[in-house]
Amino acid sequence: MPHNISQIKAAIFDIGATLVTGPPVAPNKVIASLIDGATAADVSSVIMTTEIQSAEHACSILEKRFGRLSGEAVMAVCELWKSQSTAPEALGGAAETVLTIKNRGLKIGLLSDIWSPYYAGVERVLPEVVEASDAIVLSCRTGVRKPDTSNFRTAIDALGVEASEALMVGDTYTHDILPALELGMKAVWVLARPERESESIIRILNGEVPVPTITVASVGEVASLRILNVDMLTQERVG
Ligand SMILES: [Mg+2]
């Protein structure tokens, strides 16, 4: 059954593993390994929800939470900061997809759980996407992380659309797709890393959680989806 194509007025993109490569090393795990008694989850709850200006600022925030860092840890955090801010690489078709959809008159949003240096890297590799975005909602700015739906609501409100008029595009079922569907948004699952999503795939196949509106293998396929393309009548959704 064809979707109501005239309904979608905004496309909201996750960033990591949707528009750019994910971090080659998990920054929370690296930092946790440098601090006695800190878990990766503890570190995440600090670095992903604070706007951090510099490596030195990162160290001072970590010290506030975990106590004094060793000289070795400070050096390692500085190294990590540098490597994370140069790590993101644009995924194939990411910029073209966003700009094509933008040029069709849809609003564009970015919605990401991300820490500051990685986002700085995103601004460097996808400046045209950042420029084209009408709303940018980042966990390091709002202090809230997915799957909490509040950042989704913030993005929708900032774009001036109803949930049912917004399409979420993301790679992680539990953090991008499920919260979007729960809010009444449409959701395109970019299943670029199926091995990391096997648990969700099984739950979907067993009917325990809702099926994404559409599933694709890469972000480059999104602009040609019928749900986003009034003119492309040949593209039929199967299933
Ligand atoms: Mg992601």
- As for the CATH topology of the largest domain, it is Rossmann fold
Structural domain count: 2
- The proportion of strand residues reads 5-15%
Instruction: Report the sheet with the most strands, covering strand number, pairing sense and barrel closure.
Output: 6 strands, parallel
Low-confidence segments, given as residue ranges, are 232-239
The CATH C-level name of the largest domain is: Alpha Beta
Bound molecules: magnesium ion
Report Rg: 19 Å
Provide mean pLDDT, rounded.
93
Number of strands: 6
- Following the backbone from N to C, one meets helices and strands in this order, namely EHHHHHEHHEHHEHEHE
Q: Do you know the CATH architecture of the largest domain? A: 3-Layer(aba) Sandwich
Quaternary status of these chains?
single chain
Q: Categorize the overall geometry.
A: globular
Question: What is the CATH H-level superfamily of the largest domain?
Answer: HAD superfamily/HAD-like
Percent of residues in helices: 40-55%
Structural class: alpha/beta
The total of helices stands at 11
